[in-house]
Specification:
By secondary structure, this protein is α/β, with parallel strands linked by helices. The protein is 44% helix and 16% strand. The strands form two sheets. A four-stranded parallel beta sheet has the order 2-1-3-4. Strands 6-5-7-8 form a four-stranded parallel beta sheet.
């Protein structure tokens, strides 16, 4: 089976058997009960799944696929932050480079990071993920210190979406995205299959 990250294009989802998120990728692949899976497009997320399901062969499609934001994090920068904040906890997203995942105290999805930030007793947490999450946690829990593992971890595509644009899209029925019906139907099947397995 072909498993693709849910943030891929409709065309990519239509070519896949099912989708996954960073929070359910391991569970979805495990539920398939197969020996081999084609998984993409993020090679680091694929490796994260591989390490948790060693009996399943995860074939990365493509082998070098990556999120440009999560690829920016590096071990050297995180170690420097740990020198400044020796008691800090490091939490990395599974789309980070494998070396970053391996030095982190925790590896998990954005939603898991957010919950951790709200619930942790740690005074300082270093997050290796998009900066927007850290900005949000610093507003919601100002008594804690949440740091981004690299200040340049900003997703230009995520920043294009604002509350005002969402409001205007609904209010004025603008910014319509048209997906051909044949692609929509196939992509929807891949999403529904993910929901059924997770």
């Amino acid at each position: 089976p072909v498993v693709v990250y849910v943030n891929t294009t409709a065309e990519t989802k239509a070519a896949a058997d099912l989708t996954c998120t960073s929070s359910n990728a391991v569970k979805v692949v495990e539920q398939l009960q197969v020996d081999r899976v084609l998984f993409g497009p993020d090679a680091n997320l694929a490796q994260f799944v591989q390490e948790r399901l060693p009996k399943v062969e995860i074939i990365k499609i493509p082998e070098t696929g990556h999120c440009y934001v999560h690829r920016r994090f590096d071990v050297k920068t995180i170690k420097k932050l740990k020198e400044q904040y020796p008691d800090a906890v490091v939490y990395a997203h599974p789309e980070c480079n494998v070396a970053v995942q391996h030095i982190a105290d925790y590896v998990g999805s954005t939603s898991a990071m957010y919950r951790f930030g709200l619930e942790t007793d740690a005074e300082v947490v270093i997050f290796a993920t998009e900066k927007g999450l850290i900005d949000r946690l610093n507003k919601e829990r100002p008594q804690k210190t949440f740091l981004v593992a690299k200040q340049t971890a900003i997703c230009k595509n995520m920043k294009k979406i604002t509350l005002e644009k969402v409001r205007d899209a609904l209010l004025y029925e603008q910014f319509e995205v048209i997906v051909p019906e044949e692609i929509r139907v196939k992509a929807e099947k891949a999403i529904i299959r993910m929901l059924d397995l997770s």
